[in-house]
Specification:
Low-confidence stretches: none
Helix content: 25-40%
Structural class: alpha/beta
Bound molecules: adenosine monophosphate
Mean pLDDT: 97
Oligomer: single chain
Number of strands: 9
Largest sheet: 6 strands, parallel
Strand content: 15-25%
Order of helices and strands: EHEHEHHEHHHEHEHHEEE
Shape: globular
Strand order of the largest sheet: 1-4-3-2-5-6
């Protein structure tokens, strides 16, 4: 049995007790529907800290599409078994009002700006999404207190936004963790279970597009337009509806797409396979 707290306040008290006993905390925020990607974060948090805790909260603030929120997979009992199997010590959830006391509904919650790393890409195609992420993660960090917080690089822009947020907190360190993939390269995602059999095959084209860009990079192609076009071609051939297949300098984030020759590059893709929106990314240099 895993310790499950129903509110962030109770979770905060548990975290205080851990630290008072000299135990470091590894924290993994999740929206549940756990998969191998989450498990890798949980195991690492446990390995690198004395105690591992996680949050389980489907954050309505980060869904800019009501249907996406409604259809997001939820299975708390199964998740609790998986948290326990990953040797997570404590998991907490909460109602919206526990995170935002006094707010009667989503509409009443003041949403924070995602900051400089929220610009471009996700901002353009999921307006408000990263603002909603930053708003809830601020509450989660405040509840847990000093910790190492583990996030997946699959959500690359999110990692940058939360690392920027962590600078506001004493003793919160963000650890970015590598993307866990299925056998054909598709990044593990809670949304993968929503894919049809045909969609599942198409979805593998996202990683193929990223690998195509990496191959070109290894052949010394540095031109942003060339790399972008190559990813578009792979995705179009598979019938994926591309939102973006773009590049950024991972160490100097910009809302604007790069032009000309690149020195460093992160390739990032968002595509819709049927009604399912998937994202992935790959570092091309290094
Ligand atoms: P979510 O439940 O989708 O909000 O994800 C919770 C955490 O798991 C986030 O930090 C994600 O970036 C991370 N994550 C999701 N998918 C993967 C994956 N395939 N590999 C590694 N981490 C992941």
């Amino acid at each position: 049995m895993i310790l499950h707290h129903a509110t962030p306040q109770a979770a905060g008290r548990w975290c205080d007790e851990q630290r008072a006993a000299g135990r470091s905390i590894g924290f993994v925020p999740t929206m549940g529907a756990l998969h191998a990607g989450h498990l890798s974060l949980l195991r690492r948090a446990k390995r690198e800290n004395d105690s591992c805790c996680a949050s389980l909260f489907v954050n309505p603030l980060q869904f800019n599409d009501a249907e996406d929120y409604a259809s997001y997979p939820r299975d708390t009992q199964k998740d609790l078994r998986m948290f326990a199997a990953a040797a997570c010590d404590m998991v907490f959830s909460g109602a919206l009002g526990d995170f935002f006391p006094g707010a009667g509904s989503v509409a009443g919650i003041p949403v924070k700006n995602a900051g400089p790393f929220g610009r471009g890409l996700e901002e353009q195609f999921r307006p408000g999404h990263l603002d909603g992420v930053r708003t809830i993660v601020e509450k989660l960090f405040a509840a847990v207190g000093p910790c190492r917080a583990y996030f997946g690089e699959k959500d690359f822009q999110q990692c940058l936004v939360v690392a920027d947020l962590a600078r506001q907190f004493d003793g919160v360190e963000v650890v970015a963790c590598p993307t866990v993939r299925e056998a054909d390269g598709l990044a593990c995602s809670s949304r993968n279970v929503l894919l049809s059999a045909d969609g599942r095959k198409k979805a593998a084209s996202i990683y193929r597009a990223l690998l195509r860009a990496k191959t070109l990079w290894n052949e010394n192609v540095r031109d942003a337009a060339h790399l972008r076009r190559a990813m578009d071609e792979v995705l179009a051939a598979a019938g994926a509806a591309v939102e973006y297949a773009d590049l950024r300098d991972p160490l100097a984030w910009s809302g604007e797409p790069p032009a000309g020759e690149m020195q460093r590059a992160q390739a990032l893709v968002a595509a819709r396979i049927g009604r399912v929106r998937l994202i992935d990314n790959l570092r091309l240099d290094g």
